[in-house]
């Protein structure tokens, strides 16, 4: 899961980035509306968390422009305004959900999971089951035949991205964007190393290599 956070309150953005990161969510952050539009078009996130009061333009305008450009990425509004009218306007402009500041992290996570299920090919609940592997996006538990598997955070994030998109090939670039935020230093074979470790834990057959492209999991 890779989120674009659009928020001009830098300390709030920092706090959110850390809190979400602990939950296996990669967050990239911009503080302005124009940057947000540019990023969504060039480096599409899975979900956008959008503050409405931005320094260069109104968040509602950002939503309108993205929807006019046929961008369907789920948008969750983070609003300090709290007024019913702003919320309604946001949803009317094409936002998917909203959360009034201040909010608790568990509530934000629950809203994110709802949007996550909408974009997943497999998830009807917080639990995704494919073959003998089950992955719970709420408890972050992974089990095989009821035995719990101990995965590193990167392994978990990778497996989740593949299982949520089972039946679709995930390119290397996309998977890397799920694991690392911008500017993080990553060795060129880091992804292969994680895949190697994952296969040792869940069996070599589960994740298929699509040579020169990336990886996939069959949707069975
Ligand atoms: Ca603001």
Molecular structure report:
Helix 2 runs parallel beside helix 3 and helix 6 crosses helix 8. Strand 7 (133-136) and strand 8 form a beta hairpin. It is built from 8 helices and 12 strands. It folds into 2 domains: 2-119, Rossmann fold (3-Layer(aba) Sandwich); 127-216, Orthogonal Bundle (Arc Repressor Mutant, subunit A), CATH 1.10.10.10. With 220 residues, it is α/β, with parallel strands linked by helices. The longest helix is centred in the middle third of the chain and has 15 residues, at 105-119. The strands form 3 sheets. Strands 2-1-3-4-5 form a 5-stranded parallel beta sheet, with helices on both faces. Residues 8-9, 51, 53-54 line the site of calcium ion.
Key terms for this structure?
alpha/beta; Arc Repressor Mutant, subunit A; 2 domains; five-stranded parallel sheet; four-stranded antiparallel sheet; 12 strands
Could you name the CATH topology of the largest domain?
Rossmann fold
Strand content: 15-25%
What is the H-and-E element order? EHEHEHEHEHEEEEHEHHEE
The oligomeric state is single chain
